[in-house]
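// run 5 | inverse folding | seed 20
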């Protein structure tokens, strides 16, 4: 493995570990199998799933992300960060957007995507293709778009700091998200 590739891999793993640690700060050392309440996710995400934010919670993030069938689902909303699951059909995209005061971490669990970013809306100089196991870090103030360029659904999770969406946001389809976006 090239030294630069190894450094990038180590950095990605370190960042992902730090972000996940921030999410679960306050959780005790129970494992998923030890918990007997509903604060674990092993079943498919259903429309009636509640945002588990502001409570300690553990989950199999890869399985939960891959099982998610909704375009956008706010799954855990805290004071400082938010976990959002997304599923984009082939050809769908998040659409060009900019978060002025929040950083964003995205992890691709399944699929292939094109990532565009830039400091201005008309100059997206960052252009990368990513797939399974890649992480995307979007600094506050950057314009960005993520597009599913694969032949299967793109499954990802996003962590916003601070939260971006209302607690319990659920957009079953891309069209639902667009309709909500235009209402704001």
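// decoded
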């Amino acid at each position: 493995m090239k030294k630069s590739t190894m450094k990038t891999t180590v950095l990605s793993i370190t960042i992902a570990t730090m972000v996940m640690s921030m999410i679960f700060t306050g959780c005790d050392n129970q494992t998923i199998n030890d918990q007997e309440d509903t604060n674990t996710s092993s079943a498919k995400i259903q429309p009636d799933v509640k945002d588990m934010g502001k409570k300690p919670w553990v989950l199999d993030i890869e399985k939960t992300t891959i099982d998610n069938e909704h375009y956008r689902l706010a799954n855990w909303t805290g004071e400082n960060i938010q976990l959002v699951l997304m599923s984009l059909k082939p050809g769908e995209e998040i659409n060009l957007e900019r978060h002025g005061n929040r950083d964003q971490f995205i992890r691709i669990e399944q699929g292939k995507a094109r990532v565009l970013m830039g400091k201005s809306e008309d100059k997206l100089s960052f252009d990368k293709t990513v797939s399974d196991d890649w992480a995307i870090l979007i600094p506050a103030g950057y314009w960005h778009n993520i597009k599913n360029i694969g032949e299967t659904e793109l499954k990802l999770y996003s962590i916003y700091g601070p939260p971006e969406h209302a607690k319990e946001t659920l957009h079953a389809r891309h069209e639902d998200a667009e309709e909500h976006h235009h209402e704001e």
